[in-house]
Write a structure and sequence with these properties.
Blueprint (H helix, E strand, L loop, with lengths): L1 H4 L25 H10 L3 H5 L5 H34 L12 H38 L10 E11 L4 E12 L1
Antiparallel strand pairs: 1-2
């Protein structure tokens, strides 16, 4: 009984009789699907949109910014540990190189750079999603070679002002 309950969701093949034509409906490229794909896995929406050349750019940008997140966090922790060791009266690897104030300045600098790297990573992730959505919207956009623009001189007739004709330029755009 349960097997027959869901038969409305199955694909049905049309029955074609002789002399009858069938209109093929092309499925639209879905911006929602491209957006969801790029949300779940960066670059997947670009693959769905057949813009494969963008995928390495996305991963290079995200990989670089993630690398700098970890590198700046590591530097921040090194200088923080050195400062904490100094405050506890222990020796650290920067003894005689940096003062306490220098260590605080370095900590703040690397923490700010780490936070900036996090913001850049989030921006790259967001741009990846936005790019997939926009590309999906423009997927079926027709750009033919028949686009042209022509500028030519023309005579403008204006009898309302008492002037028979004026010189002007006409801009013709052909799509």
């Amino acid at each position: 009984m349960l097997l027959f309950a869901f038969n409305g969701f199955a694909q049905n093949e049309p029955i074609v009789t002789e002399g009858e034509e069938i209109a093929v409906i092309k499925s639209a490229h879905s911006p929602k699907k491209a957006t969801l794909y790029s949300t779940f896995l960066p670059g997947l929406g670009q693959g769905y949109n057949k813009k494969y050349w963008k995928i390495p750019i996305i991963y290079a940008g995200m990989g670089t910014s993630i690398y700098f997140i970890f590198w700046n966090a590591d530097q921040y922790n090194n200088y923080k540990d050195a400062f904490d060791a100094r405050q506890a009266g222990e020796k650290d690897e920067y003894e005689g190189i940096y003062t306490d104030q220098n260590l605080i300045t370095l900590q703040n600098s690397y923490r700010n750079q780490r936070d900036l790297s996090i913001i850049i990573t989030v921006l790259i992730y967001g741009l990846n999603i936005l790019d997939a959505n926009i590309d999906a919207h423009l997927f079926d956009f027709d750009v033919s070679d028949d686009l042209s623009m022509r500028i030519e001189p023309t005579l403008l007739r204006n009898n309302n002002l008492g002037i028979n004709s004026n010189m002007g330029l006409r801009l013709s755009i052909q799509f």
